[in-house]
Amino acid sequence: MNYKTLAAFPENFLWGASTSAYQVEGAWNEDGKGPSVIDARDSYPEGTTDFKVASDHYHRYKEDVALFAEMGFKAYRFSIAWTRIIPDGDGDINQKGIEFYSNLIDELLKYKIEPIVTMYHFDLPNALQKKGGWSQRATIDAFERYSKVLFEHFGDRVKYWLTINEQNMMILHGSALGTLDPNLKNPKKELYQQNHHMLVAQAKAMNLCHDMLPEAKIGPAPNIALIYPASSKPEDIVAAFNYNAIRNWLYLDMAVHGRYNTTAWAYMKEKGYTPVIENGDMEILQSAKPDFIAFNYYTSQTAAASKGDGSDEVARGGDQHLKTGEDGVYRGSSNPHLKKNDFGWEIDPVGFRSTLREIYDRYQLPLIITENGLGAFDQLEENDTVNDDYRIDYLKQHIEQIQWAITDGVDVFGYSPWSAIDLISTHQGCSKRYGFIYVNRDEFDLKDLRRIRKKSFYWYKEVIASNGEVLKGS
Ligand code: BGP
User: Fold this and answer.
1) By alpha-carbon position, which residue is closest to atom 16 of ligand 1?
2) How many structural domains does the chain have?
3) Looking at the predicted structure, is the pLDDT value of residue 75 above 60?
4) What is the mean pLDDT of residues 305-331?
5) Catalytic: 462?
6) Is residue 4 situated within a structural domain?
């Protein structure tokens, strides 16, 4: 629908930006931190850095938070590294880890920036992985205990909690993210068992949060992007339904209603991936209710009918956002109406509005966008300037679509794009940059790691200061 005027962003809208611990902090083995599955990787894609130093946020968080405050952030979404808090995942608590996040939270609150905490963003403790990781039910208990430690130590100051970042991407594209255990014998079957365990762990954490912190709010944080049918051909429509059910709704139906949707279940049955569900699991899943839905959105996806000849699954160069497919289920398709970014990801701001509407229609819960952004090869120019107009353009178009969705009646309470500051990409190194703040380093030369405000820094500052009003005049 078109409108004569668009609704304003709500007062107290949480403008901010996001990072994750392993991609920004560095200090991978300092102050008692244990290794995560990311630290334990024996190789990284050719020509890309490891995560040992990253943006050195661990040592420079005060300077970084001051810059976030200068941009006017109302919120900052970051993750806590499980291995800083409990180095081996289920053993002793590391006081130094508690201290670091406690200080970070205090620093944010000093500037009235609302901390939004992701409890687990891809970096499972490697000690747990060695014991079978999410294939073991013991990891559910370990996560519940870890949650308890977080709520006990930070619950007095943190009001917004996110359980697991992009669980759906870990299940569907774990090899791109470095989270897939290469030793799994029947990876897909095993992954859906792990998926079930993670969902139970999430439900337990949500219940615990509500018991321990009645004032706090908690929700899931999957990557949700509406799937289009490649054409109006009825078979393409069914393919889009299939992929939507498996990629998107499986995760949100479980988080909100505690049930496997029928298509996802039929898919797992057909493929032989159904998980073992223990007595009591479904009750736990049904008892847990999120207070909101957080989701990440970068691009939409398009699906056509499967050819059924084994050719649907295409190599995507191990990228979580490029098209793929699955025999008998759907076949990934390009969308001729969309432009692509430097990495082949389709850019679809209108699809963002549709995604917001669809999620809200299905679940009727407040929404917050916890990632959205443009990865690009930024260039540091003379006098410490970075002219990232392409990023401003991308963000502007997406923020406008949030405003359309708000006018449609969708309850959106925050926008936290990726990323607050340059950090290391999941599998494309540090040259693929997303931040409002440039970090002066290359893949293998750490240089001086100094912070430089990009053009988008000043632009976003205006957006926040005007509560989005400035976009109307541009
Ligand atoms: C999401 C992850 C982030 C982030 C982002 C950008 O899938 O939650 O951790 O990295 O994608 O992706 P990439 O780093 O692959 O460019």
Assistant:
1) 425
2) 1
3) yes
4) 80
5) no
6) no
| DSSP letters for 302-337 | EEE---SSS------SS-TTS--EETTTEEEE--TT
CATH number of the domain residue 391 falls in: 3.20.20.80
Residue 6 lies in a domain: no
DSSP designation for 388:
-
| Helix (H), strand (E) at residue 266 | helix 262-271
Atom of ligand 1 nearest to the CA of 426: 14
Q: Look up residue 193 and give its two tokens.
A: 């068992």
Spatial neighbors of 149 by CB under 8 A, at least 6 apart, are: 85, 86, 93, 98
Alpha helices in 25-157 (DSSP H): 57-71, 82-85, 95-110, 126-130, 138-154
Q: What share of the chain is helix, strand, coil (3-state, %, to 5)?
A: 40, 15, 45
Domain range enclosing 35: 14-473
Mean pLDDT confidence for 452-463: 98
* 5 in a structural domain: no
Asked if residue 2 is part of any domain, the answer here is no
Q: Which atom of ligand 1 is nearest to the CA of 223?
A: 7
Coil, helix or strand at residue 13: coil
Q: How far apart are CA 85 and CA 150, in angstroms?
A: 8
Strand 367-371 to strand 346-347: parallel, antiparallel, or no bridges (unpaired)? unpaired
* pLDDT greater than 70 at residue 321: no
Cα-to-centroid distance, 73 and ligand 1 (Å):
21
What is residue 139's three-state secondary structure?
helix
Q: 384-409 burial string, b = 16+ CB within 10 Å, else e?
A: eebebeebbebbbebbbbbbbbbbbe
* pLDDT at res. 473: 62
| Tens digit of each residue's pLDDT (9 = 90 or more) over 365-418 | 999 999 999 999 999 999 999 999 999 999 999 999 999 999 999 999 999 999
For CA atoms 278, 280, 285, 286, the dihedral sign is: positive
CA dihedral (367, 115, 173, 362) in degrees, to 10, reads: -10
Structure tokens that stand for 133 in this block: 């990781």
Pick the closest to residue 290 from 220, 355, 231 (CA basis).
Answer: 220
Portion of the chain with pLDDT greater than 90, in percent: 90
Question: What is residue 474's predicted lDDT score, i.e. its pLDDT?
Answer: 63
Centroid of ligand 1 to alpha carbon of 284 (angstroms): 30
